[in-house]
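FAQ
Q: What does a multi-component entry look like?
A: The components come first, one per line:
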Amino acid sequence: MDAAVFFIAAAVILVGAVGVVVRANPVHAALSLVLTLFGVAVMFVLQEAHFLAAVQVIVYAGAIVVLFLFVLMLLGVDRAENLRTEPLAGQRPAAVVVGVVGLGLLLLALFARGGEIVTGRPSQGEPISGEGADIDKLARSLFSDYVFAFEVTSVLLVIAVLGTVLLARRPPRQVPTDEQAGA
Amino acid sequence: MMLAALEPTPSWYLVLAALLFTIGAVGVLVRRNPLVMFMCIELMLNAVNLSFVSLASALDDVSGQTVVFFVLVVAAAEVVVGLGIVVAIQRRRPGATADDLAALKG
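Then the predicted structure of the entire assembly, as tokens:
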């Protein structure tokens, strides 16, 4: 049963990921990204990470993709690109070669030890198995071992919000665009 | 049926994560639209999250899931700042692709 769910979710993930790369229209690419993110959420549920699956759907599929679509609509760049012409000669074959070599290296690193895929000592931190929901254990880990990182994260978010407001603010006086300056 | 008896092992998830990461990396190399390049970076982050979660359950350690939580937060911050930069660039140069931004001057 789990294997069937795995294969269906894996197919959804890979179809969505390929869609992000090959779709000419950026809006379609964003919707393919939703497909991949939902597939990853299914994988999280399959591995008993229920809280992370919920966060994945809410934050990624909800907030981040909506932000992408919002910017696409705001800028009016929701037109299909011309993917036929290759701007840089030989870029795509080179990218595919880099991808295949990278994948080969990743798989080599995975299977270099034969059957022993997962190395390392188990349960250095708090174990997941045992009584209680995964959200309880995650919260205990987050607010004890990783509490400093958690606090730094809040600083990061404040900096990100301030930086974005400054970046996206309209300049006080109208700066001419390149086209206007050239004309 | 054979499929019913099979249980997914950590290596299945790690191979899937490697595939997903590769697709994202090729996407960043191939696409020129900065927004689509961001989406491909999200694909790579998701691949890493998937491998963190599968290793967390394989090693029975909740720290892997905690790291995924932080990756989610950093990804959200990265997207917000990145899209802010894209909006600022597109306002000055409508229709700019990543190739047009080779020189870091206004």
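Q: Is there any commentary attached?
A: Sometimes. For this entry: Chain A has a mean pLDDT of 86.
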